[in-house]
Amino acid sequence: DAEITQSPRHKITETGRQVTLACHQTWNHNNMFWYRQDLGHGLRLIHYSYGVQDTNKGEVSDGYSVSRSNTEDLPLTLESAASSQTSVYFCASSEGGVGKNEQFFGPGTRLTVL
Amino acid sequence: AQRVTQPEKLLSVFKGAPVELKCNYSYSGSPELFWYVQYSRQRLQLLLRHISRESIKGFTADLNKGETSFHLKKPFAQEEDSAMYYCALSPGGYQKVTFGIGTKLQVIP
User: Fold this and answer.
1) How confident is the model at residue B94 (pLDDT cuts 50, 70, 90)?
2) Which residue of B has its CA nearest to A48?
């Protein structure tokens, strides 16, 4: 069965370190997204991609970067982790197109920056 | 730009009582509207979408273009309905989805 996975599921790191969160989907979806989920803010879009070599900034992209070298993966990198980036991170994918924008979510990564 | 508003962060109802989770949106065109649900410690999953006009787990949602609303309703709440609910809007095509901040539904036994 097709799925979307994230790793690691939990991560503790220190301020200033570079961290990469992995997202892998086997839906063969064009679109992939990264969100952070925080109490009182809901889901906020960090970065997204509509296909290989395409990346776009979301509403809270500062301090984060992504790259899309293939259809299946969209890793999220925190260049220099900050305590404000402690959050739960969700990756999602969708096929894209009219009537095809249902997003399929990964299980999430809980990141703690000390 | 599109916007989704969920005015209630927390909604508490008794088991068996009716439930209405409010969602209002702003978008000039004809959007696709969705409700996603997140049960405790689980991933978000699609509950329903307006274009399918179906009832899932007893929930329904009607798109009211005049009031720009897409409220989620269920006539009789169950304890297993306790979860976080997100309303979401897609302009359609290859465009990103905008989520509301979510409403936590707590069903009291």
Assistant:
1) low
2) B96
B7's tokens: 């005015």
User: A42 vs B94: CB contact, 8 Å cut-off?
Assistant: no
Looking at residue B56, the DSSP 8-state letter turns out to be B
Distance between CA atoms of residues A60 and A84, nearest Å: 12
Q: Please write the tens of the pLDDT for every residue from A27-81.
A: 999 999 999 999 888 899 999 999 999 999 999 999 999 999 999 999 999 999 9
Rg of chain A taking only CA atoms, in angstroms? 13
Query: Residue B49 has which token pair?
Result: 């979408």
Partner residue facing A107 (CB), from B32, B43, B99? B43
Structure tokens at B46: 């699609």
Closest CA to B35 of B80, B76, B69, B78: B69
Instruction: Render the burial of B75-102: b for 16+ CB within 10 Å, e for the rest.
Output: eebeeebbbbbbbbbbbbebbbbbbbbb
Residues contacting residue A7 through CB under 8 Å, at least 6 positions apart: A21, A22, A24, A109
Tokens of B88: 């979401």
